[in-house]
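Case study B.
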Amino acid sequence: MNDALRELAHQWLHPGTKGLALRQPLRQDTLGELGLNVLDGLLSYPVAVLRQSTLDHNIAWMRDFVERADALLAPHGKTTMSPQLFQAQLDAGAWAITLATIPQLRVAHRFGVKRVLLANQPVAIADIESLAALLREDADFQAWVLVDSSAGLQRLNHVMQQIAPQRRLPVLVELGADGGRSGVRDLDSALQLAREVHAASHLSLAGIEGYEGLWVSADRDADLQRVQSLLTQMVALTRRCDAEGLFDGDEILISAGGSAYFDFVADAFNSVGDTSRPLRRILRSGCYLTSDHGLYHGLQREMRTRHDASFRHGLQPALEVWAMVQSRPEPGLALLTLGKRDASHDIDLPRPLSWHRPGQPAPRPMRDARIVKMNDQHAYLELPVEHPLQVGDLVGTGISHPCTTFDKWPLMLLTDDSYRVTGAINTFF
Amino acid sequence: MNDALRELAHQWLHPGTKGLALRQPLRQDTLGELGLNVLDGLLSYPVAVLRQSTLDHNIAWMRDFVERADALLAPHGKTTMSPQLFQAQLDAGAWAITLATIPQLRVAHRFGVKRVLLANQPVAIADIESLAALLREDADFQAWVLVDSSAGLQRLNHVMQQIAPQRRLPVLVELGADGGRSGVRDLDSALQLAREVHAASHLSLAGIEGYEGLWVSADRDADLQRVQSLLTQMVALTRRCDAEGLFDGDEILISAGGSAYFDFVADAFNSVGDTSRPLRRILRSGCYLTSDHGLYHGLQREMRTRHDASFRHGLQPALEVWAMVQSRPEPGLALLTLGKRDASHDIDLPRPLSWHRPGQPAPRPMRDARIVKMNDQHAYLELPVEHPLQVGDLVGTGISHPCTTFDKWPLMLLTDDSYRVTGAINTFF
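Model:
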């Protein structure tokens, strides 16, 4: 454990920390010794919990997957923005941590991450200066960034020249597709940009990047076609750049991979064929770590149907948010202490999984009930009028889209399989 | 300034703080001396900014409004969860700060707030214990809470008896309405609950509460009818409780008022008539402080049409989020550094207000452009193909629903009218 992580473990949690009903400051690393259990009803609710055994399972599963795929993992850190989870991912062999913004990259560096992939073209001059300063000051720190325009490239080159002229910033050209997000829209323009990177005085062309994970629509056939089309183009661009001798380093990077299609990505990257120097295939899934009970659960199920038994016990949901029944003002309605500030609501509302009356033996499954609306601090749970749920009962919910739940919790509790609190992780948003 | 606020001012901001491209730690209270200007393009974008003069205007406007209405203001602190803004509201005469949860109440207390209205029935035993412990330990601290069920009442009474038997917890009975959130659904049941509060050994009946702000639908006539109906019921309940001698304190509290209909609330509360002891009319708007460019802007416009010239220069939007153009990959599309992690997306997506090229004299209005989608860290801006917007330009956006933007920024910058950074406020979510 490095100094910054140790400092986190030793920090004082103040009364007002969500999920904990602290009456005085508590040292974070003593949390696991208090004998707390989510099911006892003696926390402050809502509380977000991560099941340690499921995190461990998902980390091991993905490590095995990338090994079999002859790929490397640079898990997207923006999902969790948690230094302790970054460290767990690196300890399990992750090659780097991916980040979306320079402030995120700075957080990762502050907590000891020494190799980062910025899956964006940084454009703000002060952000690029901040990156260049890190590269100048910390010889052990390595960063790769994207470009998708000459304008972006020139900003990078200019700042590197000013601030860190002794290092060349390794750059991946981002390939996109019409209707997509960023990224150069066609192969010829991307090749042209690769030439510009190669020619830039303070940049080096390190590889090719794309992001296929956005295409999740109602039309799954069309989605898969677009994914395959982007991957095919990426492979072609990699070959053409290599054929022209544009890659500058000792190896060539090719990177894609959200959490929806990393199996297709791995397959496509294995079709590049011979290259002038070793090809590093970098997958960047972020949501694999916790998965969820919504969008990614469905995508995982789809992925399993594409594969053999090795996928059967694939990624499992590790994250739950537990709320308390605050009111049952109508026979078919309960209000939960669970709002837009506590759980993702951008893709689906949280899904009730189980309910529990503190003091009783074990949570029971929650059927025929659903959350139909959330306000800032409340959820509206519709349930059968005969359901025994009452004020003070607990409801465990699963979320859809981990990224937008993590960013609502500066502190998340770790539990064992019986919901005993064993510790906590921090997030930095 | 109390010690806790002074400590905040003196805290070190670390590299990785969103909006600031820090390369080393910076003492927060030196931020205003750096000569930063949002329009110079030398921050990290996105950055959330609060215009100080507009905050001051809104605070003064609302102070005048409640004065004219013979009401008191307990602004909802859950909107901002910012100790510095709480203090500004109290300095301008706010009677108390309203909070939604016990962790929020603890944050307010930690930063010196001595009078709070918890606009919810607290149900978690550990939360109630935390509140009772505060009441036991801090004789200067006053808190009012809601009940809407016997079960809730009994939990409160039991914990108060255990932990703070020397104080009676003042309670407001929450009146609701079918299809609404929490709150007792009819007058007779509410009256019965008021009797139970009055009879409880460690509680006192302090008043009547309701929340009318939720009814904002496409059918404005129906909304207004429901609002007026709830207010009428609240007035009737207040009279009946008073007639029965159920109120325990030296005064009677009646409280409602989100940010949509506080004018109706004030009118209704002035119709209660004579009471056995002084009636305190408590409004609880939270969003008045910053207003917005979306939902609350529209509601303010409606409110203005209901009133005379004193409303003409009413609440103004004080909060903007500035993003940078990261990519313009198609002629009609720009990608902004602005995602679901940075701005509200629960009611409307952010609205582009102006654009600016650093180095040029002043921002220009942004017409014919709109944000059509956001990912976690990106916004998709559709704009005319001939628009000169390019990589590195800034786009200022207005948001809809302040609560869900504040919770995305641990630090927000204060600016003057020319976007010079004069300081910062913190939030605690």
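The first strand of chain B starts at residue 12 and ends at 13. The remaining cases will be described in the next quarterly update.
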